[in-house]
Amino acid sequence: MPRPNRGGKSGPCLLNVLPGHLVADRRTQHHAPASHQRSWRMRVPRGGYVNFLLVMVPMGIVAGALNWNSTAVFTINFFAIIPLAAVLSFATDEISMKLGQTMGGLLNATFGNAVELIVSIVALRDGQIEVVQSSMLGSILSNLLLVMGMCFLFGGLVHRGQNGAGTEQTFSGAVAQTTCSLMTLSSASLVIPAALYAVLDQHQTDDKNKSILILSRGTAIILLLLYVIYLVFQLKTHSNLFDAEAQQAAEVEHGEEPTMGPVAATVVLVVVTVLVAICAEYLVGSIDDIVESTSISKAFIGLILIPIVGNAAEHATAVVVALRDKMDLALGVAIGSSIQIALGVTPFLVIVGWIIGQPMSLRFETFETVAFAVSVLVVTYTVQDGKSNYLEGVMLLGLYVIIAVAFYATPSGAFDKSPISI
User: Fold this and answer.
1) Measured in whole angstroms, how far is the alpha carbon of residue 404 from the centre of its chain?
2) How does residue 376 score in pLDDT terms, banded at 50, 70 and 90?
3) Per-residue CA distances from 368 to 55, 106, 130, 215 (Å)
4) Residue pair 88/114 in contact by the 8 Å Cβ criterion
5) Arithmetic mean of pLDDT, 132-138
6) CA–CA separation, 64 vs 77, rounded Å?
């Protein structure tokens, strides 16, 4: 696939790159230390395959402002946010290239899942706690099962070997185990509130809910502190552990140069963030009507649909590098984004809910908690040997489909939380 022309003959298109993961300082091409899971982003030429969706942005704003049919408002704004997420990642990349490794890593850690965060804050403000929790769980599961499964499947098929002498793709088992340990801890942070809620007196509902809020807020603070320590671990003290991922990122993006100045990129970042917030406002506002008029539940919307909005471009990136046999980089996209959601975004939303008076907690329903814990367990066993093949990819994809079907079969309101007095 030819690279975009970066000379003066034809100006670079804003979406000529596929924002995915791992932005590296271009001054350290081949042996730069790795940083946080989103602090490196590779840039893969893609021919602007989501450019046509940008027309949905003004259409979505008009549809919401003129109170069109809820299905139309939801659908148009859903597709509008997908290219905006790609542009947001692109602008973040451009700024990070000027900031260097550490500051670039921190910037990408902040904006890595900006779309999911914006949509969730809008939903949280509207009291759509079920949607927020399902979208956080869905983002994690889509990365752990769907994205990683596709990487293992397609990468394994391309590099499967011939005549029965099957080969496997390899990656750093030590890094995978470290990140999976963090995911196991995050699953424990959901299991404990669910277990506490189950054992408390069933007749003291208000006291139970208050206890869960206290536990959730305390746990959220601890998880955020752990996330900061994890950033230091990757960015500073143990960056050498991620050298394989860093070198693969440098190889993919070799020769790439910034296409926008820092001021222009900052303006784009601000403008696109505002547009995402507007589209998210209309998208979230139409969810109740969608649920009432269709058989789709809020849990399914949060688990399956909303994660697609912010992660479509990144998912494609992971598969592309898996096809190139750069599995450390592919896993960095998948597991790294999951860690950011689990240790960064979700506890941050608990704190935001605390501030704005919404009872956002880490108490997920039993089924959600079990689905998360089982997924982390399966992924941990899958990556522990540092090898992957297409059979393991099919296994992960199969588990994701099973969970998705289960959420689709769940009646609307099944995961509604009882009101909590704050």
Assistant:
1) 17
2) very high
3) 36, 31, 11, 18
4) yes
5) 91
6) 8
**In the chain, what percentage of residues exceed pLDDT 90?**
32
- The alpha carbon torsion through 79, 138, 345, 53 (nearest 10 deg) reads -10
- pLDDT tens profile 270-312: 998 899 999 999 999 898 888 888 878 888 888 888 888 877 7
Amino acid identity, residue 289?
A: D
Query: Phi first, then psi: what are they for 339, rounded to 5°?
Result: -65, -40
Give every CB contact of residue 357 below 8 A, 6+ residues apart in sequence: 422
From residue 63, how far is each of 60, 274, 283 by CA, in Å?
5, 17, 10
- Residue 211 tokens read as 């206890």
DSSP 374-421: HHHHHHHHHHTTSEE-HHHHHHHHHHHHHHHHHHHHSPTTTTPPPP--
Q: Provide the whole-model pTM.
A: 0.79
pLDDT value for 418: 53
Q: Which domains does the chain have, with CATH numbers?
A: 17-409 (1.20.1420.30)
| 12-50 per-position pLDDT tens digit | 343 333 333 333 333 333 344 433 434 334 443 343 566
CA atoms of 9 and 26, how far apart (whole Å): 23
DSSP-assigned beta bridge partners for residue 170: 387
Q: Concatenated DSSP letters for 248-301?
A: HHHHHTTT---SS-HHHHHHHHHHHHHHHHHHHHHHHHTHHHHHHHSS--HHHI
Structure tokens at 256: 């790439």
Mean pLDDT of 199-219: 83
Task: State residue 73's pLDDT score.
Answer: 93
Which helix (H) or strand (E) segment holds residue 45: the answer is: strand 41-45
Amino acid at 320: V
C-alpha–C-alpha distance, residues 41 and 92, integer Å: 10
Rounded to an integer, what distance in angstroms lies between the CA atom of residue 195 and that of residue 145?
25
pLDDT of 82 higher than 90: no
Token digits of residue 279: 């589209």
Query: Are 80 and 52 a contacting pair, CB within 8 Å?
Result: no
